[in-house]
Every structure is written in structure tokens, then in C-alpha cells.
Specification:
The protein has about 240 residues and is an alpha/beta fold. The chain is about 40% helix and about 25% strand. The strands form two sheets. A six-stranded mixed β-sheet has the order 6-7-8-3-9-10, with helices on both faces.
């Protein structure tokens, strides 16, 4: 049996009187690439924020490596190997690309290896290497998304949470981002991917969850979901 790294149990989140997440369950096993798809306002980003502690849970629990992480801050979670790339990227705009990557490694004790890992990130994201001394705020949206992913990987996460990585990007950049997500997964990083581009997400994922109005309405093998008439009609624009 695969080792379950992340388990969401009966998660409920409300804010402003709105029940945004209504008691969902999901799990992510070691080495998997799991995608959570659904239309705008389904509760996907709210779920991610609750997992990482930036929104408080009304009910339920989130377990990481068998331990409850309810109420833990993002800082603690990064130290434990749970890193998130938020929607909107959140790079440090007034720092250079290299400085952003160094910030990603702030929880690490093995400082001599950080420089090696920065070079490794430049191997994965050659465009960042070309611009390594440039201020992050002067980069395009796609380049900032690459930087946000590279910065998260600098913390050496066991589980990487990606919230809408392709949002607002050009088609060429979307291709690149999905290619990188697939490559990172192939290197053994467990990934939970929230994505509006359901078709692309299901093409690279092992399993998928479909969320609608705060509830999980379907789950299954990603390849089967790609050919499911209900999924195709509702989320793949057919």
C-alpha cells in the first residue's frame, strides 16, 4: 500500500456566512500527482488555504504524514516539507531571482548545498538563469510562475501544493508550466494540483477529484475521468 502523505477529513470552511467547503475528504499518497478540478468558485483555493493554515477550518482535520496539522502556520509546514505555490504567485518583486531562490531555502540547515540547488533550479528553468540578477517584479507572469515554483522547490518539499499555476498565462507558457509540473512529479515530489484547466491537469495526473459548490462530487483515475461524458460536458467544454 502506498504511504498516505496528506489526508483531508471532513473539512468544512466558512467565511462571511458562506459555506465554502462542505465536509470534503481527499487523500494524496506518496509519489502521486493528484489534481483537484472544478469551476470557478467551487472551493478549490479555499481548500488549499485551509490545508496550509492561511484560512481556519470550521470543522474536520488535515493530517500530514499521519499527524494533524490543524492550526499550524505556513512556516511550520514548510519546515516539515509541505510547500505551497499560491494563486497569484507571490514572488518578492524587489528581490532578484537569485535572492528569491535563496529565500525559498530559509528553513534549511544544509546551507552549503543551497547554491547547488539554485543551479539545479536553473537547469529546470533555464529562463530564470538568463535573468538571475533581474528583479522579480520586472518579469512576465509566466516567468514569475516559474520562479514561484522554483522557490518552493528550494525548501525540498515532500509535498508541493500548486494553486492555479496556469492562470492568466499565454498558451506557450501554459505548456511549459505543465511540462515542469510533470517533470517535478517524475523526480519523486508528491503534488496536489488545483487547476481550472481540467483537461491539461487530468492529462498529467494519476488521480483526480472534481469539486462543485464546496463538495467533492467525483473522484477516480485521471485517464478514466478524461473520457467520462459527465466530466467532459461539465469541465472540458464539450
Amino acid at each position: 500500500m502506498a504511504n498516505t502523505l496528506l489526508k483531508v477529513k471532513g473539512l468544512k470552511v466558512s467565511y462571511g456566512g458562506i459555506k465554502a467547503v462542505k465536509g470534503i475528504d481527499l487523500e494524496v499518497n506518496e509519489g502521486e500527482l493528484i489534481t483537484l478540478i472544478g469551476s470557478n468558485g467551487a472551493g478549490k483555493t479555499t481548500t488549499m488555504k485551509a490545508i496550509t493554515g492561511s484560512l481556519s477550518m470550521e470543522d474536520g482535520d488535515v493530517e500530514y504524514m499521519g499527524q494533524s496539522i490543524r492550526g499550524k502556520g505556513a512556516w511550520d509546514l514548510v519546515k516539515q516539507g509541505l510547500a505551497m505555490v499560491p494563486e497569484g504567485r507571490g514572488v518578492f518583486t524587489r528581490m532578484t531571482i537569485t535572492e528569491n531562490l535563496q529565500m525559498g531555502a530559509y528553513v534549511r540547515k544544509d546551507k552549503p548545498k543551497v547554491a547547488d540547488d539554485i543551479e539545479r533550479m536553473f537547469g529546470i528553468f533555464p529562463r530564470l538563469k538568463e535573468r538571475k540578477d533581474q528583479l522579480a517584479g520586472t518579469m512576465s507572469g509566466g516567468e514569475q510562475q516559474m520562479l514561484a515554483m522554483a522557490r518552493a522547490l528550494m525548501s525540498q518539499p515532500k509535498v508541493l501544493l500548486l494553486d492555479e499555476p496556469s492562470m492568466g498565462l499565454s498558451p506557450i507558457m501554459v505548456d511549459k508550466i505543465f511540462e515542469v509540473v510533470r517533470d517535478v512529479s517524475a523526480q519523486g515530489v508528491t503534488i496536489l494540483l488545483v487547476e481550472q484547466n481540467a483537461s491539461r491537469a487530468l492529462q498529467i495526473a494519476n488521480r483526480g477529484y472534481v469539486m462543485d459548490s464546496g463538495e467533492i462530487i467525483m473522484t477516480g483515475e485521471a485517464k478514466q475521468m478524461l473520457t467520462d461524458p459527465k466530466v467532459r460536458a461539465a469541465y472540458l467544454g464539450e
